[in-house]
Design brief:
Number of domains: 2
Distance between the termini: 49 Å
Order of helices and strands: HHHHHHHEEHEEH
Shape: globular
CATH topology of the largest domain: Alpha-Beta Plaits
Largest sheet: 4 strands, antiparallel
Radius of gyration: 20 Å
Length: 210
Amino acid sequence: MSATVSRRDIFDPEAVHDFAQRVGTIEKLKMLTLFTYADIKAVNPEALTTFKAEMLWQLYAAAENYLNRSVDDQRLYVAGEDPRLLETPGSHGEDAAESERFAKFLEGFPKRYLLTHSAIEISAHYRMYKRLGFSPAKSVSLNVANTMNLSWWPRTGPSCFQRIVGTVSSWGMNILKADAAANKAHIVLDTLRFSDRFGRSTTIHRKWYA
């Protein structure tokens, strides 16, 4: 990041494109920006001038805008175009038909979906996707630091998202991130990430599956 600021024109779209492509995700961009700031300050408290701090911020803002825009505009049309798609169900000894179904499931999702979900989460979403029409599809996965990820395929219209977010919030949860994405079949996947400030995870899990 320091090299980009000092050697390239950060207001040049090509420079922003090259930098953002190397960083890859917004989460990595945030960590890189904080690390760069701390690294410069650690070398010499006077090294981070007002001008250099402004340039770091400008580069961060431009790269974040690029990543937010590009991962939504760029859709998945070929299942094997991204390395993360190589770990399909068919690669674990299942038949080719299952691999084809998995590819159709991914087709049309914004590339943001791959950048913001782990392989384990994508696999869980696919299993939920296959159950659509047979049973309510919902999933809760616990992460570190009392953070929960809740994913579901809405079956009751657009108000489903607002109702679930409102319910989780009413339980005292701190909502960190909410997201929605649709594939080529126009089936929407909603995801919600929140922290459990009061240790109510067990209660929520019981109520959600009641």
